[in-house]
Design brief:
heterodimer; A: about 325 residues; mainly alpha; 434 Repressor (Amino-terminal Domain); Serine Threonine Protein Phosphatase 5, Tetratricopeptide repeat; 16 helices; about 70% helix; about 0% strand; B: about 325 residues; about 75% helix
Chain lengths: ~325, ~325
């Protein structure tokens, strides 16, 4: 989401596919016309725009609409839905989804949203298994990127919904314990995000979200070094943009890995002290942000594992 | 997805849709921004519309423009980029460059609406302030900027107005200048109206940081007026609204105010000894936020206070 010209959209998409103006315009319009469109000196007529986007494997409607037909009527509800998902409250999320469904149309973007939303709920409420979950997410992404799976998405300009879908797909792989695929998809989402049609704030939030998940998957796969590095990268972004939301999780991710390295004797025993400092910082940050779930978790973790250093329960 | 759908897809229909479900009349929504005729044409789907005007209308409806994918016309796009460039040059401290761009922008938008005049007036005000210019002049320029779209700001303030994010920011700048000039009662009058306005409105994410910023300023005002109860009340209300993407620096300020006011009230009511643990936890929350954000001055001040008043030992961690 953001502001741009049609010409920018065409140029960004074309460059991401590494095709020339000649290849793209062949049979649709002259190279000169395409060049003028891309530089903003001429507005494309609708037919040409659609043909160009279709040739590049893009569903065409999105650029003309700010959102899809009915999306804006349910915009606030969609946000509420995402909030409940973040809070792990899938029953409430399903309720909201029922409301959304009544107002949602049948455009490609509407369907893409719906398939993603329903599969998340069904999976989290254990109505479908993880491989079915993955299958449906892939169905959803193919709606707007028909060439998904056959082309590299690195450098492909993603929409907000597509980026979220990739994150979901990565999670599905991780829950199937296929951490390599999970990391690979996140890497590619990260590359794509660099030139997606998103505004700065959203891009930064995605970046932090990706770092958070990627660190977890590396950690689960036993690659603690990479897990720590990527989580620290996320922490640095939080610091630069003063974002707190994922911060306690990111800090915990680093410490979780360090604790394992200490157990293995790869880090000195006295680094426990630094770990405790970081955990306390994470705990107070989480409490200040009223993230009670993670705050309680961190408190328990500290009291269970660091009593030898703290002496008694923390407040 | 063909032409028919495209029509209802238009941004104008979004504006009409939200205006109608929030039951806002056309005249109220467009007051100071454009004529009712213009708004009607936009709602009817006319394509050739100034995007800055669209943004202002959407923002007055409580929508942030980044929720939408706006396709700009070329002339719009160039103005949009110039505005970004001006803001960037001001941020970077290249004041002369910014001034040149602003003059060019003013020429370019001479025949355009108030909203462009507001942009230039506010930018000139910030420029004047950053160059260490006369404070009164800055305030005059800001007032002029807001009066372009809120014509009776001086007399009626913001009563019965719908405000965009941009307008709220200018109003808050005016309030801060009033505080610096010790004009407490005038500042309080405006800020309470702003808070009231924000309370009533359904707000987007962008504005939840706005709420915090307003609350922090309001708290500072009431602290100066020696009213810790009111400051704490505002602070708690702002914290209860915290959700989504609140900036850490704002959260740090609110947490610190909460700690300080709680302590102050407890001391006044002789309840501090029993409430010490609560205060300590509040201070530590603020401390860790400032420390993480690299604000060492503020973090050190809290640490010193905790060592002096709470027999807190700085062992590197708190237990």
């Amino acid at each position: 989401m953001g502001r741009y010209r049609l010409g920018d959209i065409i140029r960004m998409t074309r460059k991401s596919l590494s095709i020339t103006q000649e290849q793209l315009s062949n049979g649709i319009c002259s190279v000169g016309t395409l060049s003028r469109i891309e530089t903003g000196r001429q507005n494309p007529n609708r037919d040409i725009y659609e043909l160009l986007m279709e040739r590049m494997g893009r569903i065409r409607e999105r650029a003309y609409s700010m959102l899809s037909v009915s999306d804006f009527k349910v915009l606030d509800k969609m946000r509420l839905f995402e909030e409940y998902i973040k809070l792990y409250d899938y029953d409430k999320a399903e309720e909201v989804l029922g409301d959304i469904k009544k107002n949602l149309g049948n455009s490609n973007l509407d369907r893409q949203f719906m398939i993603r939303a329903e599969s998340i709920i069904n999976y989290r409420l254990k109505r479908i298994d993880v491989s079915e979950f993955l299958k449906r997410l892939q169905e959803a992404i193919i709606i707007t990127i028909p060439m998904y799976g056959t082309i590299s998405l690195s450098g492909w300009p993603l929409t907000y919904n597509e980026a979220v879908l990739l994150l979901n797909i990565s999670t599905a792989y991780a829950e199937m314990k296929d951490y390599d695929s999970a990391v690979r998809i996140l890497k590619c989402a990260y590359e794509a995000m660099k030139q997606s049609y998103m505004d700065e704030q959203q891009r930064v939030l995605f970046h932090v979200g990706i770092a958070n998940n990627m660190s977890k998957w590396y950690g689960m796969a036993g690659d603690y070094e990479n897990a720590i590095a990527i989580a620290n990268e996320g922490i640095e972004i939080c610091k630069r943009f003063k974002l707190g939301n994922s911060l306690p999780n990111l800090i915990y991710s680093v410490i979780w890995c360090k604790e394992r390295l200490i157990d293995r004797g790869e880090l000195p025993q006295d680094s426990k002290r630094d770990c405790l400092n970081s955990l306390l910082s994470a705990y107070y940050l989480a409490s200040a942000m009223q993230q009670s779930f993670i705050a309680q978790f961190l408190k328990k973790h500290i009291n269970d594992n660091y009593m030898d250093l703290t002496g008694h329960d923390i407040c | 997805m063909h032409r028919d759908n495209m029509e209802i897809n238009d941004i104008g229909s979004v504006i009409r849709y939200f205006r109608e479900i929030y039951r806002i009349s056309q005249s109220k929504l467009c007051k100071g921004l454009c004529s009712i005729t213009t708004l009607s044409r936009i709602e009817a789907g006319e394509r050739d519309v100034d995007s800055l005007l669209l943004e202002a209308l959407l923002e007055r409806l409580g929508k942030t423009t980044n929720q939408f994918e706006l396709i700009l016309s070329d002339s719009d796009y160039i103005l949009y980029q110039t505005r970004e460039e001006i803001n960037e040059q001001i941020r970077a401290g290249n004041f002369e460059k910014a001034e040149d761009l602003l003059n060019a922008y003013m020429k370019e938008t001479r025949i355009k609406g108030n909203i462009h005049k507001q942009f230039t007036a506010a930018a000139f005000a910030r420029l004047n302030q950053l160059r260490g210019g006369d404070d009164e002049l800055t305030m005059d320029m800001l007032t002029k900027a807001i009066e372009y779209t809120v014509p009776d700001f001086k007399t009626n303030r913001i009563k019965d107005q719908y405000l965009s994010h941009t307008e709220l920011i200018i109003i808050m700048e005016i309030v801060r200048h009033m505080l610096d000039a010790d004009m407490y009662s005038g500042a309080a009058e405006i800020i309470l109206q702003v808070m009231d306005y924000l309370d009533k409105r359904d707000l987007g994410e962008k504005s939840s940081n706005m709420y915090t910023e307003v609350a922090v300023t309001a708290c500072k005002l009431f602290i100066k007026e020696n009213n810790p109860e009111k400051a704490l009340e505002i602070c708690k209300k702002a914290l209860s609204k915290v959700s989504g993407y609140l900036k850490l620096d704002n959260l740090g300020e609110l947490s610190l105010i909460k700690a300080m006011m709680t302590e102050k009230i407890q001391k006044k009511e002789d309840k501090w000894e029993s409430g010490k643990k609560e205060c300590l936890k509040l201070y530590l929350q603020a401390y860790h936020i400032f420390a993480f954000c690299g604000d060492t001055n503020e973090a050190d001040r809290i640490r010193k206070h905790l060592m002096e008043e709470y027999e807190w030992e700085d062992t590197g961690w708190e237990i």
